[in-house]
Amino acid sequence: MTRIFIFILVTVFCFSSCKKETVHLNTNTNEVFWLSNAGADMPVWVKGNTASHIMILFLHGGPGDGAYQFVGFQTNQLWTNYSFAYWDQRDAGSAAGNSNYSNLNVPQMIEDLQKLVTVIHYRYGNDMEIFLMGHSFGGLLGSGYLVQNNNQSNIKAWIEVDGAHDYPLADRLERRMLIDTGRSEIAKGHYVSQWQNIVNYCKSHPVRSSVSIGRKTDDLASEAENYVNINHTQTALDLFSVSSPVTLGANLFKLYYTAVGTDFLQQLLSASYTPQLNKITIPSLLIWGQYDFTVPMGCGYDALSRLGSSYKKLVLMPHSGHIPMDGDPDLFAKTVSDFIEAVR
Amino acid sequence: MHFLKTIFLLLACGFGARCVLAQSVDSTSLPVYTSASFLYDFPQSFGATAFITLPLNYRHIFINKKRKEKQKFRELLTRSEAGFYRYSFNNTSFLFQQSIGFRYQHKTPWFFEWMLSAGLLRTFYDGTVYKVSDDGAVSILKNFGRLYAVTGMSVAFGLDLEKRSKPLPFTVSFQPSLWVQYPYNSFFLPHISTRLSIDYHFPSFNILVRQKNIKRGLPS
Question: Distance between alpha carbon B125 and the CA centroid of its chain, in Å?
C-alpha cells in the first residue's frame, strides 16, 4: 500500500513538473502573470481580447499608484477589440517582494519594462503587437524605455496620456496654469477663497525645490479639478473593488515618508527625456485632459513638436483633468481605437 | 508636609485593602478548544483558519464592592493557528502563528479576549511567475512566492455556550485584528482582518491548570 502511494506521488510530481504551460488566446481573457526581477515581484493583470493579437501595455502613474485601479471602469470599453496588460511597477500598487532600496529608480524600472515586453512575447507569441500606453509618471517611464537601445522594435506604437516625460517642464506649466486659471476664476467670482489659496501657495513657492513642495502643489492641482467643469465617472468604491487601498497606502507611505522614497522622488524633480524625444519614431498618440493642472497640455504640445514619429497626433479631452479615462471615457476609448486601427 | 504624608499612607493602605484580601491556589480542569474560523482580510481577501486554544492558568476573582459580591474570571491562553486566504488576481497566502493573551469573563456567557501573535506567512502568487535573465532567456519559477514574518494584536468578543443554563460545547466569537507582514517591499504591509470563529470543546479534551482564587474589595 505504501509503495503504491509513493508511486502515485512520484508520478503526479513528474507530470506536474514536466507539464508545459499552455496559454490560450481568447476574446475574454482575465488572467494574471508575474514578472520577478531584481528583488521585485510585479503582477500583470491581462484583460480583454488577446485573440486580437493587440495588447495595450499600461504604465501607471504616481509613481506608486498601481495599474489595477484602471481595470474595469476606465479602460474596459477597449477590451472587446483589444487586450490590456495592467502592470503594477516595482514598489507600487500590489507589487510585492523585497527589493533592496537601491533598486527604486527609473533605470531599474526601464529594465523591468524591457523584461516585461520579453515575457509578453514569450507568453502570447511574437506576433502580439504591443501598444505602450503611459499615463502621468508612466509617460516618463515609457519615453525612457523607447529612447533606449532598439526597444522601439518591440513596440508597435506609443500612446502618452497626460504623461510627465519632462518633470521640470510639467512643474513650470502646472504652477503657471494654476495661477492663470485661478486669477481668471477669481475674476468670474467662482470659488474665490479656494482659488485664492491655490494662487497664493503657487506664488509663494515659485520652484519645486523639495519633494514636500511638489506634493503640496500636486495636491492643489488635483483640488483645482474640483473647481472647473470636468467629469468624474470614477468613485472610491470602483477603485477599491479592484485594487487594495492597503497595499497602495503602504507603498505610497514608503514613497513619501521614508528616505528611500523621498530620494527617488527627489531624483524625479529633474527627470526629463525631452532632449531625446526625437529618437522616438514609432507612431505616437498624445492624449491630454484640457483641464489637467498636474501635467498641463503644454507638455503634450511640447512632445508633439519634438517626437521623431512621422505619424503623431495630439487629442485634447474637453471634460477631463489628469485622468482622461475618467473624464471622457467614451472619447478616450474612441481616440485610442481609431489610432490603433490606423496604425496596426 | 506631614499632613500630605499621612494622606498618602492612608490612601496606600486603603488601596491595598481594596486590591487583595486573600489568595488561594488550586488546580482546575479547563477545556481545550479546537476551532475553525472564517477570515476576511480587508478589502478583498477571504480565507479560513483552524486553531487550537490551550489555557495556561486561571484566576477566579471575587470582588466585594459596596457589600455586593461580583465574580470574574481571567484565563491566560495560548493559541496555535494555521490558515490561508485568497487575494484575487494576486496571491494565496498560508499563515502560521502562535498567540498568547487573556480571556476575561464574568458570570454571564459573554467574554472578551485580547491576544498578541507572531508567526510566518507564505504567499503563492496567482498565475505563472517569469524571470528573465540578462541575455533575455525566460524561465518559469514554480510555486513562487515570498516568506514573511507576521506579528499583530487581536481582540475577540464571544459567547461561551458552555456557560448557558443549557450548556453546549461551543463558543462563538468575533475577532478583529491588526497585524503587519514584514519585509514587504523593504517596508511592512499592515492588515486589518476579522475572524468569525466557532470553537468546539471535545468532552474528554481538557487540561489541568493552576487556578488562583483571589478576593478583592473593601472588608465588610
Answer: 29
